[in-house]
Write a structure and sequence with these properties.
Protein name: CxC2-like cysteine cluster KDZ transposase-associated domain-containing protein
Number of strands: 9
Number of domains: 2
InterPro entries: CxC2_KDZ-assoc
Pfam families: CxC2
Order of helices and strands: HEEHEEEEEHHEEHHH
Number of helices: 7
Length: 210
């Protein structure tokens, strides 16, 4: 009977019997090697890669991604995001369990949108976000639309197909995707014009000429 390679390594280190180890049932499509792991090991291996595609969603395996902290540090008072938090990435559309920081370090961690931005996720809204896109997918779309003239509609369709090309559609976040792309492009234009870094309460409009 096949055994979980992750549990076998732990068993050897602890010099314990490997007879009662859990069965390996989950394979990640994005990890190199194609190894099959048990639920506990596959969740542990993906604490820093919550957007990898496992043959069952990582959210269904009770993986929760903590924002406002480093991947392996614990928040003493995590605040759960609304159920059904969706992240768009280069390999598809993902439902992710997200915790925001609510402990004594919350002030330094920032508001919900700041915590997402620091983790590389661009939120679709600044108040109680439920959708985000990674900087990777936004940058990838920018290159696609500049080089191949790919539209936002066609690119979103590709993300749907990458999520699961079985006819079952992922959560609909097309309107949010349009907003994300337009806002991100606007920010890039400000950056290219040297008007993105503004240390003034009036924002970009308060930037002086030159």
């Amino acid at each position: 009977m096949q055994q979980c390679p992750g549990c076998c390594k732990k068993g050897k280190k602890r010099k314990k019997s490997q007879d009662n180890l859990p069965l390996p049932e989950y394979r990640c499509r994005d990890c190199h090697g194609g190894m099959v792991y048990c639920q506990t090991c596959v969740v542990t291996r993906h604490l820093e890669n919550p957007l990898h595609r496992v043959y069952i969603a990582l959210a269904d395996l009770n993986l929760r991604r903590q924002r406002g902290h480093s991947p392996l540090s614990c928040c003493t008072a995590p605040e759960r995001a609304i159920k059904g938090f969706v992240v768009l990435h280069t390999n598809g559309i993902h439902e992710v369990n997200v915790n925001f920081c609510g402990c004594e370090g919350a002030r330094a961690a920032g508001t919900y949108d700041i915590q997402l931005l620091r983790a590389g996720w661009f939120p679709a809204t600044h108040e109680r976000p439920q959708t985000a896109a990674t900087f990777a997918v936004l940058n990838y779309f920018q290159q696609e639309t500049c080089q191949a003239k790919t539209t936002m509609y066609d690119f979103y369709g590709v993300l749907e197909k990458l999520t699961g090309n079985t006819g079952v559609k992922p959560p609909d976040r097309y309107r949010e995707w349009l907003r994300l792309c337009r806002e991100y492009e606007h920010i890039l234009l400000l950056a290219f014009g040297d008007r993105a870094l503004v240390f003034d309460p009036s924002g970009v409009n308060g930037t002086g000429p030159g």
